[in-house]
Amino acid sequence: xxxxxxxxxxxxxxxxxxxxxxxxxxxxxxxxxxxxxxxxxxxxxxxxxxxxxxxxxxxxxxxxxxxxxxxxxxxxxxxxxxxxxxxxxxxxxxxxxxxxxxxxxxxxxxxxxxxxxxxxxxxxxxxxxxxxxxxxxxxxxxxxxxxxxxxxxxxxxxxxxxxxxxxxxxxxxxxxxxxxxxxxxxxxxxxxxxxxxxxxxxxxxxxxxxxxxxxxxxxxxxxxxxxxxxxxxxxxxxxxxxxxxxxxxxxxxxxxxxxxxxxxxxxxxxxxxxxxxxxxxxxxxxxxxxxxxxxxxxxxxxxxxxxxxxxxxxxxxxxxxxxxxxxxxxxx
Length: 332
What we know:
Arc Repressor Mutant, subunit A; nine-stranded mixed β-sheet; disordered C terminus; 11 helices; D-Maltodextrin-Binding Protein, domain 2; two-stranded antiparallel sheet; 15 strands; single chain; alpha/beta
């Protein structure tokens, strides 16, 4: 195999040639990359050793061998350990390779170390009960890991390889991922009848009240809230309560602790039963995407199918944007 050379410049301006080693194909050892993935998942070398059923020194040696092979540091030896950018890439590869291997062996009727393929799914906090139910319906046949992320925290697991599927309102696509449109959902400003009366929210059908009127916002959804306020020509309230989920925001709104911008699919029953009122003629819509690895396996497709079926019952095909209704709509 031919050797490579590099022409460089000396400090005096003349050129010199540095001979490099002969190029050879680099092969990532399965044991090495899977060891790093286990370290990342468990948070320490000792915990990874217990899971892999090898000694901690063997884990340390594999890690050293991987870094020597790549010529890069893949792990920061902190507590807990932390992957470098290079380590993120290796772990993403390890998880994708593991999934493909498990699917192949499963299709051949061979059990891979007694472990069935496991699909990692991450969903944002909006409508999470619906997404969890959709994934749970597939979990009887396909082991899954499901976790939540907030819009303001953009580590939704895609870049790091910690997720195979992500449901998000973010349009950005990570390298190697594919995007499937799920549809859009309307968000309305709602509050309890007692809150509406106490703060005088319905003045000519709009949010006409002082900035002292309490507001409830789902954590990470400040951008959506501000978009609504801009569309409805209002400013941010001076009294804001932040909660971790849509379900908790709904409970706060029904209890009269503030007005809140909530998905229409969540508020329908409360509106019908008089527990909530729409307090503005302005609504906004947001588009949801399902983003998935560019790897097509039966397990991934099964989970995606359940999520799409759920989306079909929740969303319309409307394009996201600002929506305005009449006074009768606001009080319906």
